[in-house]
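Moderator note: this is an archived Q&A kept for reference. The question asked for a predicted structure of one protein chain; the sequence and the answer are reproduced below.
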Amino acid sequence: MRFTLLYPLFKTKAVTFSYDDGVIQDQKTVEILNRYRLKGTFNVNSGLFGAKKIRDGIDCSRLSSPASVKLFQGHEVASHTLSHPHLEGLPYEEQRKEYGEDVFALSKLFKTEISGSAYPYGTYDLVTLRVLKDLRMSYARTTQSTYGFHRPYDFLLWHPTIHHRDPLLMPLLQKFYETEEELAIFYLWGHSYEFALDDNFAVLETFCQDVSSHEEVWSATNGEIYRYVSDANMLYYRDGFFVNPSESDVYLAAGGDRLIVGALSHLPYIEGEKA
């Protein structure tokens, strides 16, 4: 039986955002995302809360911890390490401290499980991957643009689609709407202070307005996409039944029908039954 996996509510595509460092410009980014009812993931260094930083005469300081807790409600917070070092070459103990202490501090502050991360400067090595696996982290974002929409082969090496400064951003978004890739993902990343430096928050506004006008798109955090895709990938068909061994309902299309296979269930397929 051939079938096509879909996102929740039978959406065919997903868009997710990832913004680094927890800077004061995240306030504007969140304001725009909220206006269009979109979700983002914000990668925070717990050891740098409130750190002052001026770039090209513009205040790009880190948010305080209380401001972060208030701002990121409704969005996801992920680890960006404790102090934002270049991880490659550091011994296991130092990398473990950078991630372990950051995850612990963020979990306590935001009162939620921290399961994802973004690599500082986009760099890592085999030790980094070992640390993340030992800490049972679910995903980690790199800075390598794929210009594609496929599911990651390894969520600990989750390459984004494109950076928001890239001039191909909007043309690529139009290609995204046309793709027939199963469980297609458009993954946008960057730093909110870049909008301030370039004086172009309009780029994000235009992108979000466009995305929000397409009903086939599911807006989700990095973590939500990781969990759903991981669960959906477990679905299989056997002896007239769709089998879902995961703990999430999975949406799919088969033989012209749209179906929901409940968590931990067997669903007999009878052609012509619509969801």
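Archived answer notes: The chain has a mean pLDDT of 96.
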